[in-house]
Amino acid sequence: MIDPARLLRERGLQVTAQRLAVLRAVSAKPHATADEIAEEVRAIIGAISRQAVYDALAVLVDKSLLRRIQPARSPALYEDRVDDNHHHIICRICGKTTDVDCTVGERPCLIAADDQGYEIDEAEVIFWGKCPECRKASSVLETN
């Protein structure tokens, strides 16, 4: 990751210990929930309120330093891979989330059958299924 303090300054944000810790936590654990990020941040700087983490996440998403992913029926997830239009695969069993690069063409990776006059600049796709570990575990259970 590029120097987080520099990233904050480039986006016109004040450099704070909380924002730096949130950026570092998300970089260390992509696709984490806000609560998981709060735990990581506490390990980095000690006490911090849950609300302070949520506030920092909101600002960092607003300034395009982090990306917020909102899978159906799941808590929001955060990542620092913001420079492209990639997608995600999520395991229905354990919730493991993995990046998937665009498979066809350039941004936005997909072409709408009817764009309704919109100028589309991003496509967000979430693939759902079972990760290799959960597939293996379920096949072991089925054979017993």
Topology (elements, then pairings):
Blueprint: H1 4-10, H2 17-28, H3 34-45, H4 50-62, E1 67-69, E2 77-79, E3 87-91, E4 97-100, E5 126-129, H5 132-143
Parallel strand pairs: 3-5
Antiparallel strand pairs: 1-2, 3-4
Structure description:
The protein is α+β, with helices and mostly antiparallel strands and 144 residues long. It has 5 helices and 5 strands, in the order ααααβββββα. The strands form 2 sheets. It has a 3-stranded mixed beta sheet, with no helix packed on it. Strands 1-2 form a two-stranded antiparallel ribbon. The N and C termini lie far apart (45 Å).
Key terms:
144 residues, Arc Repressor Mutant, subunit A, Dna Ligase, domain 1, 2 domains, 3-stranded mixed β-sheet, two-stranded antiparallel ribbon
What is the structure about, briefly put?
The protein is α+β, with helices and mostly antiparallel strands. The chain is built from 5 helices and 5 strands.
Strand proportion = 5-15%
Q: What's the shape?
A: flat
User: What strand line-up does the widest sheet have?
Assistant: 4-3-5
What is the annotated CATH architecture of the largest domain? Answer: Orthogonal Bundle
Can you count the beta strands?
5
Average per-residue pLDDT, rounded, comes to 88
Structural class given helices, strands, pairing?
alpha+beta
Rg over CA atoms, rounded to whole Å, is 18 Å
Instruction: Please tell me the total number of domains.
Output: 2
Main sheet makeup: 3 strands, mixed
Identify the CATH homologous superfamily of the largest domain: Winged helix-like DNA-binding domain superfamily/Winged helix DNA-binding domain
